[in-house]
Amino acid sequence: MANILIIGGGVAGLSAGIRAQLDGHRAVICEKLPAAGGNLTGWRRGDYRIDNCIHWLTGTNPSTPLYRMWETLGALGNGIGIHRGDSLYTCEWDGERLSLWRDLDRLERTMLAVSPTDEKEIRSLVRVIRAAQAFCGIGGKRHNKGWNPVLALRDVPLLLRYHRMSTGDLAARFEHPLLRAFLTDFISERFASLAFVFVAAHFCGDNADVPAGGSVAMAERMVERFRGLGGELLTGKEVVRVLHNGKRAHGVQFRDGSIAEADEIVVTLDPAVVFPRMVGLPMPKGLAARYRDKRLMRFSSWHCAFACDLPEVPFHGDFVIKPDPACQFRLGAPVLTVREFSHDPNAAPRGSTLLQTMTVCDEATCRRFIALRGDRDAYTRRKQYLAKWTERALAEQFPELDGHLSCIDVWTPATYERMIGSEIGSFMSFAFGAKVLPLRASARSGLSNVTLASQWLRAPGGLPFAAEAGMLAVRAITAKYRHASRREGKAETPAVLGTEEPIG
Ligand SMILES: Cc1cc2nc3c(=O)[nH]c(=O)nc-3n(C[C@H](O)[C@H](O)[C@H](O)COP(=O)(O)OP(=O)(O)OC[C@H]3O[C@@H](n4cnc5c(N)ncnc54)[C@H](O)[C@@H]3O)c2cc1C
Questions:
Q1: What are residue 249's DSSP bridge partners?
Q2: What percent helix, strand, coil does the chain show, rounded to 5?
Q3: Preceding amide of 460 cis, omega within 30
Q4: Residue of 18, 269, 273 to mutate, ligand 1, most atoms within 8 A of C-beta
Q5: What integer is the mean pLDDT of 40-46?
Q6: Does the beta carbon of 30 lie inside 6 Å of ligand 1?
Q7: Ligand 1, residues 32, 73, 427, 458: which to mutate, most atoms within 8 A of Cβ?
Q8: pLDDT per residue over 82-112, tens digit each?
Q9: Is the pTM of this model over 0.85?
């Protein structure tokens, strides 16, 4: 089989590497940072442990094909615990709160209690969430129904109705401001309403939860799995150039000047960086069209982490805050989300709590952060300013926290751009609006032995699509080699653990 060189040691790269070893190839992952994991990461600040990825991992329901994929990748299974919180997030309007409860009946009851006049739309929303669950094979009381083509067909018209709406359009159908905020403040009003529907479907279907140990532990398990299968992980190895003759690549060049050769190259990075800087060829047309499509939006976020010297905070899970207009103006955002970590015993020292905020920003804001970082002092001042106003927003929302918070870190799209290397500091691929079908783009690069395995091939990206991209790229290579050896009449190298686990 092939010597495969994989560029990038994030989830896509690790998944490609694991699939390659399972298929009998020899895989080497080249990662520029000192550790693998990419955006599936976290770090320490003093006694606090920041987790900067998994809010929900799709595929935590053991009856789903995605769970089996995560098992193959060493991410789940094997007794690894899963935290299943009661609610995904909470919104507030005029002192009244609404949470996205795991129990869908409870969510329906709560919404009806908030606004009986919105009954028709509430019932329809709950119906489409159940339809999405049936579509994903997680329907029924125990969320283990499996995919049923007849039921799926029955639900298509209902799903199509929501496909035509953004969350803003959907919210406009509700009278009560809390319900409207509930639909648009966690997932932006510009995004497809089906994004909200599927997030709720997976969460309420026990299929979008947090594995024990959080993001870093999951990345470490995947690294262990890859190495356990005989794969080689090179860290601190930044690829600067794919070496090719216009048709075929023969290797890569690293920042330190060294060169590595390979039969096949798998590229997991943002294509907006790969093609102009690393390959020196135009991006394939289909993919380039996506970067130009106004209905597909690139985004990132900036964050603050606060140490809180209280043993408890007055909310659970994620809470969406709408600061007062002056504060919104200063933060440059209408809402921010704050997360507490009571589910993670290692997040904060005993008697204290860790709070992390996340404020989503559009492409133009991302570019401003990246440009500002060129002036270190101005960038530092901007981060201090954001931390001050974020703390103020938190204290306004929760007066109990006033005087108990101290900022321990601020990071921005410029941090993602510097560390992970995506063009505008994105950590997922495109968010999409109404009427967009997020089909998978071709993995072809224009060079016969260079395959794309990037989350950018399928919006909106995220961990499952990154893993899927890695696995599919290697499956294509394996198929190519099997086909070639059959043609030449050679004996095929058997796959090590030849299972072809399903991909979600
Ligand atoms: C705050 C936050 C919250 C998130 N929440 C969730 C969530 O709840 N659920 C979910 O599914 N997803 C979530 N995500 C998204 C998820 O982290 C990503 O979709 C996923 O990690 C992408 O993996 P990847 O391998 O495709 O890319 P990356 O993680 O970007 O990995 C690319 C790797 O390539 C390396 N690299 C870059 N340039 C080079 C080079 N020249 N040479 C060698 N190596 C290079 C990078 O260092 C990195 O390790 C979140 C991300 C963030 C930041």
A1: 244
A2: 40, 20, 40
A3: yes
A4: 269
A5: 97
A6: yes
A7: 427
A8: 999 999 999 999 999 999 999 999 999 999 9
A9: yes
